[in-house]
Amino acid sequence: MTDKIILGIESSCDETAASVVKNGREILSNVINTQIDFHKKYGGVVPEIASRKHIENIDSVIDEALLKAGMTFDDIDAIAVTYGPGLVGALLVGVSSAKALSFATKKPLIAVNHIRGHICANFLAHSDLKPPFVCLVASGGHSHIVKVKDYAEFEILGRTRDDAAGEAFDKIARVLGLGYPGGPLIDELAKSGNPDAIQFPRVRMDKNSLDFSFSGVKTAVINYLHKAEQKGEKIDKADVAASFQAAVTDVLCEHTIEGAIKSGVKTVTLAGGVAANTELRKKMTEECAKHGISVLYPPPVLCTDNAAMIASCGYFEGEKGNFADLTLNAVPNLPL
Ligand code: KG4
Ligand code: ZN
What we know:
Layout: E1 5-10, E2 15-22, E3 26-34, H1 36-40, H2 47-69, E4 78-84, H3 88-105, E5 109-113, H4 114-125, E6 133-138, E7 143-150, E8 153-159, H5 165-175, H6 182-190, H7 215-230, H8 237-263, E9 267-271, H9 278-289, E10 294-296, H10 300-303, H11 308-319
Parallel strand pairs: 1-4, 4-5, 6-9, 9-10
Antiparallel strand pairs: 1-2, 2-3, 6-7, 7-8
Helix pairs in contact: 2-3, 4-11, 5-6, 5-7, 5-8, 6-8, 8-9
Bound molecules: 5'-O-[(R)-(carboxyoxy)(hydroxy)phosphoryl]adenosine and zinc ion.
Residues 114, 118, 139, 272, 305 line the site of zinc ion.
């Protein structure tokens, strides 16, 4: 087999990223320019700022990815780019760059679904991982339980009906006055709190469905804080963070394990920003072990947005002959 070198480009939210990956598995470079500092003061991502920052940075991020890999465009076999889901203005920057580069260098273009990309981070982190397996994709925009049937074949077993898990983490961090992005801050604060201090709801939409709902737990935490404030009671933020995190991770684990058992697979993987959560990783590993299921997850840098996962996914799409042409457009609400 001759090696295939893919240049990946990612700009769907607040990270401008480019990466060079060999054969879908080996990272040769992984450059991530995060805009978090520019969005922090607004408590969330401001789409207009995101688009502008992507435009400012994308060329140098791509140059740096090639430089770090010790390559030029002559060494690249295809250009893979995230075309959805995400913020339309942000996506358009990556898509336009990839199209221009594909046109100028005559290299094939591959359109990558961002959620599929998150799943593929596991192929980078675990060189011998093979489908089938079940993946929990939990990020700021998505919460899906996916059966990965083959490298580019996916079946959704469950999804959120309202907020994404990461969105709930970000919202609760905001009401606790912790800052943005909330996930890592709650993760850290929860380590000194008691997860059993407050019983927040573990919502099950209906017993035959693996779907999630996180708006209930979010509201329950907000109500708890309001009531405590009205009564002039002292709030232990660490206990609130730990109890909230326990409620969310309990539900994520329970539904994912049920999905794995129903699918008859022996491996569960985690993906997306929330997969960086310490408690989720620990709980999923412990609970899955009770059912003889092993758990794999990428290092935190490959859980949050990056372009290596896009290049990996692009490789597998390319192997299936899934190429795009220059009519490619951004699709903000692209389904999995
Ligand atoms: O995958 P990602 O970088 O972007 C999206 O595609 O949305 O995920 C970002 C989300 C944010 O909501 C962030 O708060 C959450 O992932 N996150 C975490 C942790 N690290 C990032 N949530 C819980 N625990 C963490 N350690
Ligand atoms: Zn993402």
